[in-house]
């Protein structure tokens, strides 16, 4: 290996082992995912679920890719869970190989290092049915070029024609200058095609035992002709003679039109190389993630086995306390005050389910589950632009979840946080009970609530777990441990006292709480006020909601 390659490899290895935490340019990174939205897929993660699971931050944590192509493929992979167990096992084997074989990893890193320019984000533009935009009046370019040549040659027999040559030259120059900026913008991805070809060729020559690379021979060969045409746009002419020739004969316009046709014809080959290169880069990123975090390989079981999470933690929460959960025939109802860990735990479960079916890697001791789609309602907001209240947004979101579960029963994992909190207590409890009872036979459901009555109302189809805090005269703290059974303690008003609320406020709150707890409800139920911690939560630093 030559010395420059050794230096490059040391730099690349260091970046792979500890990737720099940088904020990705999500609009550019998401271009490939957006490009394939119309294509059929087992599941595309909705924007709401992606936001609820802190998808952009999760992507940043995983992003140890080398190239923009790898970034785009990783983002697409994270938002497109698979139902193909063989494909997931194959990706796991690729990540394992790159983690355990430094020589193989070095070959991949060096190959991908050719494709690091920012312009590589625009290679996606070459993958569609109309990969490059057409130029206005492009057919006129050939006529103008022929007119100039005809008058130039004809002038040797009839010198008056050279006046026409002058006119054509002036017109062609103006025509060229008006379209030059547009052409430079359009050929931006075309100029990166050679780098993509080189990266794919070096990965193939390295003979890495990865299936996508074994299918690259034909696509790489088919790109040769396109690259020869595109190379003309990269020629640098210090003398300016070529620029004059291009201006008078409209060479750029004519060549762009030919390249556009060739790119359209070879779009499948370009996509094959693009996805193979991105696949290797994704596997490198996942191998890095496995080196930096405690993870396990998921095991996919039949649906009747349910979902089992052991030692699951959230990789975005420093020092996250691991928890276990088995989700089988019954749904799970989580209770507990804010900051105790409910939402973070639900996100932990969602992230494990998502990563299991995208990168075959889970931040847990063990994860066993059937193939499923993840949908969430954890962090909704009202919409000022459409004039929708918070409750209306909640209701519309839940309607979409109900329709999804009706269309494909038994295939969804639903994570729901405090449903219908935009309305009054009585109707909230009634709506919660009706919706959760309807969803439970059709999906795996984990729902968090402050309404203790729901545990009793849903005891036939839900089991209760809780998180709790400990409040003393001197301090208050959380252990973030998931515990079985309903929450039996109330510490909200004691927490007000601990935060030095006026004694009169604390005493009045305690007295009213006691009265409400003993007052019978008109329908024979007692409405708890376990949502009391909400008032305090806004004046404290959320230990739970580090991700929101």
From TrEMBL:
Gene Ontology molecular function terms on file: ATP binding; ATP-dependent DNA damage sensor activity; mismatched DNA binding
Transmembrane segment boundaries: 142-175
Protein's UniProt name: DNA mismatch repair proteins mutS family domain-containing protein
SUPFAM superfamilies tied to this protein: DNA repair protein MutS, domain III, P-loop containing nucleoside triphosphate hydrolases
GO cellular component, one term: cytosol
Lineage: Bacteria, Pseudomonadati, Bacteroidota, Cytophagia, Cytophagales
Matches recorded under InterPro entries: DNA_mismatch_repair_MutS_C, DNA_mismatch_repair_MutS_sf, MutS, P-loop_NTPase
Organism: Hymenobacter aerilatus
Domain of life: Bacteria
GO biological process, one term: mismatch repair
Keywords from the UniProt entry: ATP-binding, DNA-binding, Membrane, Nucleotide-binding, Transmembrane, Transmembrane helix
Signal peptide limits: none
Residues in coiled coil: none
Domain (DNA mismatch repair proteins mutS family): residue spans on this chain: 329-514
Pfam family, one: MutS_V
């Amino acid at each position: 290996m030559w010395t420059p390659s050794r230096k490059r490899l040391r730099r690349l290895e260091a970046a792979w082992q500890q990737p720099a935490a940088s904020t990705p340019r999500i609009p550019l990174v998401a271009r490939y995912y957006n490009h394939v939205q119309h294509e059929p897929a087992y599941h595309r993660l909705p924007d709401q679920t992606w936001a609820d699971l802190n998808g952009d931050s999760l992507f940043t944590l995983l992003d140890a890719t080398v190239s923009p192509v790898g970034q785009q493929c990783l983002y697409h992979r994270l938002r497109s869970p698979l139902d193909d167990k063989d494909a997931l096992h194959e990706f796991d084997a690729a990540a394992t190989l790159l983690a355990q074989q430094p020589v193989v990893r070095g070959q991949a890193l060096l190959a991908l290092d050719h494709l690091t320019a920012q312009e590589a984000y625009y290679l996606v533009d070459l993958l569609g049915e109309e990969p490059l935009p057409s130029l206005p009046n492009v057919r006129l370019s050939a006529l103008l070029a022929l007119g100039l040549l005809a008058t130039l040659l004809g002038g040797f027999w009839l010198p008056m024609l050279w006046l026409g040559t002058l006119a054509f030259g002036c017109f062609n120059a103006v025509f060229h200058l008006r379209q030059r900026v547009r052409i430079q913008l359009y050929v931006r991805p075309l100029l990166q095609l050679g780098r993509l070809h080189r990266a794919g060729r070096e990965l193939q020559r390295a003979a890495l035992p990865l299936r996508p690379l074994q299918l690259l021979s034909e696509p790489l060969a088919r790109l040769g002709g396109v690259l020869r045409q595109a190379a003309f746009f990269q020629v640098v002419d210090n003398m300016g003679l070529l620029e004059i020739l291009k201006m008078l004969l409209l060479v750029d316009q004519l060549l762009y039109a030919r390249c556009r046709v060739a790119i359209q014809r070879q779009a499948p080959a370009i996509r094959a190389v693009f996805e193979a290169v991105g696949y290797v880069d994704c596997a490198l990123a996942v191998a890095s993630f496995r080196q930096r975090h405690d993870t396990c390989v998921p095991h996919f079981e039949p649906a009747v086995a349910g979902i089992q999470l052991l030692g699951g933690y959230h990789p975005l929460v420093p020092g996250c306390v691991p928890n276990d959960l088995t989700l089988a025939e019954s749904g799970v109802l989580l209770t507990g005050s804010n900051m105790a860990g409910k939402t973070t735990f639900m996100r932990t479960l969602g992230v494990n389910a998502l990563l299991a079916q995208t990168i075959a890697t889970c931040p847990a001791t063990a994860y066993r589950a059937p193939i499923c789609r993840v949908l969430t309602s954890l962090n909704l907001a009202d919409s000022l632009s459409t004039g929708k209240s918070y409750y209306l947004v909640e209701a519309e979101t839940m309607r979409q979840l109900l329709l999804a579960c009706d269309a494909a029963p038994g295939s969804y994992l639903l994570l729901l946080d405090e449903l219908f909190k935009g309305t009054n207590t009585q109707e909230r409890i009634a709506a919660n009970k009706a919706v959760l009872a309807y969803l439970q036979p059709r999906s795996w459901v984990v729902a968090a609530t402050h309404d203790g009555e729901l545990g009793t109302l849903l005891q036939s189809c839900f089991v209760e777990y809780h998180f709790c805090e400990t409040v003393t005269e001197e301090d208050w703290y959380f252990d973030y441990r998931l515990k079985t059974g309903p929450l039996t303690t109330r510490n909200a008003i004691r927490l007000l006292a601990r935060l030095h609320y006026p004694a009169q406020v604390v005493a009045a709150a305690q007295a009213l709480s006691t009265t409400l707890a003993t007052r019978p409800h008109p329908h024979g139920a007692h409405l708890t006020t376990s949502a009391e911690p909400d008032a305090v939560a806004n004046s404290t630093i959320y230990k739970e909601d580090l991700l929101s």
